[in-house]
Amino acid sequence: MRSSWQYGEKEFLVNLHKQMDSQGLDWRDDAIVTPISENLSLLYSIDNVSIIKELATPEETMIAYGKWAASVICNDIIACGTLPKGLALDVGIGNMDEDGFNCFVKGVLDVCRKYATNYEGGNINTSDTVSGIAWGTSEPERIIRRRGAREGAVLFATTDIGIGWTKRLLRKYASEQGMSLSCLEGITPHLELLDNYQNDPCVNIELFKEIWDLDIIQCGMDLTDGIIELGYEIFDRTNLGVVFDFRGKVHPLLQAASDVLNYTSDAFHFEPGYDTPYAHGWCIDERDLHKAICTFEKYNAPYTILGYTSSDVDGVTYNAGNSLRSLPRYWDDKIINRGSIDNWEKIILPVFNDL
After folding, report:
1. pLDDT by residue (tens digit) across 7-43?
2. pLDDT digits (tens, 9 = 90+) for 129-172
3. Are residues 203 and 130 part of one domain?
């Protein structure tokens, strides 16, 4: 018998939602939103993480793990347009000794200081993963939700999209060739970026607060599963079509990787979530786009213009120059392993085969 979750995370949750008679909850927003008074809502979110990278020393690795755990778990509250006020963790110490645990906590507290978030404790268990809950409060009308995109909105991402996935593809290719990344032609100028890309997983919270205060975000979400999910969230909720169009701009690393791997550089943008937790996707009215760009440039922060919404388009598409090409539903990597390189090559690359 086929398990229901094999169809994908969204389908599984929709089915579960029906069984529970919905209870009035919108499960597709980044955080759970519960009214606690007429003018105030409680937001909370639960997530779990494991170690993502090994650094030069065990101490550095565990500090980075703590930063990553705290950032990921706080990120769903940030995606809703507010600061996390509290964080509690259930820490699996199966891969930690006492010194490692202390380093892990240093990383957690570093993120809490940056976000002015209270670390409220939690639990310790013997697994190899960390689970946690983050919470915040907001006026209901200021909450950023996944619904609300309007005709002609510009899709805006809060980082250079595709860097994390490109790094993974390059590492696989270099390993197959029996060489290091530094030996790949054209990649040397980008080694520092590749080495340090995930060392500080926090968003620039002062930048985000300034954008929030501008009140220009129609809707938004974190890009945990990549930008195609953003496109389908918009299409499913509004029936507006989405056109991914990167306006001819290519990050130098993506162009260099394109030359090495012989893939069209735009294909790297359609990755399964390796740019989280710094990546958020927003819909912004084109008349307000300059406000977002000026704010990001003020902080010398990267961003990517992803495309736009259109009532003249049916579905989620990529602008290939002379035609719009339909994009498949591609996410849910946590449940059905779409995050593998093999699956990306099978599902995404055919869109670009003759470019």
Report:
1. 566 666 666 666 656 554 455 688 989 999 999 999 9
2. 999 999 999 999 999 999 999 999 999 999 999 998 999 999 99
3. no
My answer on whether 89 and 196 are in the same domain is no
Structural domain boundaries, residue 118: 19-142
The answer to whether the beta carbons of residues 67 and 108 sit under 8 Å apart is yes
In a domain, 149, yes or no: no
Residue 135 placed within a domain:
yes
Residues 201 and 309 in one domain: yes
Cα separation, 59 vs 62, in Å, equals: 5
Type of residue numbered 38: E
Question: Does residue 96 sit in helix, strand or coil?
Answer: coil
CA distance 101 to 43: 28
Helix 163-176, helix 252-261: angle, nearest 10? 30
CB-side neighbour CA atoms (13 Å) of 161:
33
Categorize the per-residue pLDDT at 55 as very low, low, confident or very high, splitting at 50, 70 and 90.
Answer: confident
In angstroms, rounded to a whole number, what is the distance separating the alpha carbons of residues 220 and 213?
Answer: 15
